[in-house]
Amino acid sequence: MAYPPVVVGAKAPDFTAPASTGGTISLHDFRGRIVVLYIYPKDETPYCTREACSFRDTDAALRKLGAVVIGVSKDSMASHDEFIRKHHLNFTLVSDPEGKIISLYGAWKAHSLFGKTALGVNRSTFLIDADGIVRQIWRNVTVKGHDEQVLQAVKALAQKSPP
Question: pTM value?
């Protein structure tokens, strides 16, 4: 199913999915808080692990600003549980095995390998304000320094509307 593209200034698409906190969560559960929603390809791969650990290390500063981090991938809850345990992650991971959230946020990307093209996950981050509006989008994320970019954007957003 094709969805309209997610753009800055638009309402963030809501979703409900299994979460590492137990049960399910919905994006609207976080209304009133800034949300850093990041979509990544796969648990335990080198760049995904670096990205998760950088958000882990930035989480306290983000929380002080009233923000919450939510990571989304196609991995199972069992995979997420192991990923969280192994790397001491301190934020919620959401399981999207059918790629519905990934589709909703337009985070698919065509990859070519050995002459064959397939869709894969485009590492993306969405900064969503307390009213559920997308305020910034990063696509094709380069992991190194991304956590600091996000932290600075959250600081700027929090100054506009304190938590």
Answer: 0.93
CATH number for 30-160 (one of 3.40.50.300, 3.40.30.10, 3.30.450.40, 3.40.50.10750): it is 3.40.30.10
Are 80 and 20 contacting, i.e. CB atoms less than 8 angstroms apart? yes
Q: Please answer whether residues 6 and 106 qualify as being in contact, where contact means their C-beta atoms are separated by less than 8 angstroms.
A: yes
For residues 5 and 19, what is the distance between their CA atoms, to the nearest angstrom? Answer: 24
Q: What is the rounded distance in angstroms from the CA atom of residue 149 to the CA atom of residue 152?
A: 5
Task: Report whether 141 contacts 107 (CB < 8 A).
Answer: no
Query: Would residue 48 show up in a list of annotated catalytic residues for this protein?
Result: yes
The pLDDT assigned to 3 comes to 65
Model confidence pLDDT, tens digit, residues 58-74: 999 999 999 999 999 99
E-assigned strands of the chain? 16-18, 24-26, 34-39, 67-73, 92-95, 108-113, 116-121, 124-128, 134-138
Instruction: Out of 12, 19, 34, 48, pick the active-site residue.
Output: 48
Q: What is the average per-residue pLDDT within 76-80?
A: 96
Q: What is the pLDDT of residue 96?
A: 97
